[in-house]
Write a structure and sequence with these properties.
The protein has helices at residues 3-29, 42-68, 74-94, 125-143, 148-157, and strands at residues 117-118, 121-122. By secondary structure, the chain is mostly helical.
């Protein structure tokens, strides 16, 4: 696959991940643990809904940039990478906030859901999705960098 096409494909995949996964998982699959959870106060539900709209806005903005800008425009591709991954960076950072959790252990509605473990370390699907999306965005941006061969050709022509 041509380098520019692969770069754009990775950036589009990251944008679509940001646009669809948070809403699909948290608003549909896990709705009883989030928006339909009777233990949540209305203000907590507001913040949850706000995160859905933030993810949708960021993913849509990244897709819009990728649709109208050429892949060789490094700034635009960097902006698309940032927009496509920033929601996920926030998710990872939020897990470090005191009193938060990536999982549903001891959830009053969903019950005692244990996350899979690998070598005694919990593997949280939302963190895995975040890492994959961030890596796709970084990889896509990295692939937009001019190659040494391209730089030499530009130098010879001038």
């Amino acid at each position: 696959m041509h380098r520019e096409k692969l770069a754009k494909w990775l950036l589009v995949a990251a944008a679509i991940s940001t646009l669809t996964i948070p809403i699909g998982v948290d608003a549909v699959l896990l709705a009883n643990g989030h928006m339909n959870n009777p233990a949540w106060l209305p203000h907590a539900k507001l913040h949850c809904a706000m995160s859905f709209f933030a993810a949708a806005s960021l993913g849509s903005a990244a897709l819009a940039i990728l649709k109208v800008r050429p892949t060789s425009d490094r700034f635009s591709m960097g902006l698309a990478a940032f927009l496509g991954s920033t929601f996920w960076i926030g998710l990872i950072a939020a897990g470090f906030w005191p009193g938060t959790s990536y999982g549903f252990l001891n959830d009053p509605v969903l019950g005692n859901i244990r996350e899979p473990e690998l070598g005694g370390i919990s593997i949280y699907p939302n963190v895995v999705a975040a890492m994959i999306t961030i890596v796709m965005a970084i990889g896509g941006y990295w692939l937009t960098a001019p190659t040494k061969l391209t730089e030499q050709n530009v130098t010879k022509k001038t």
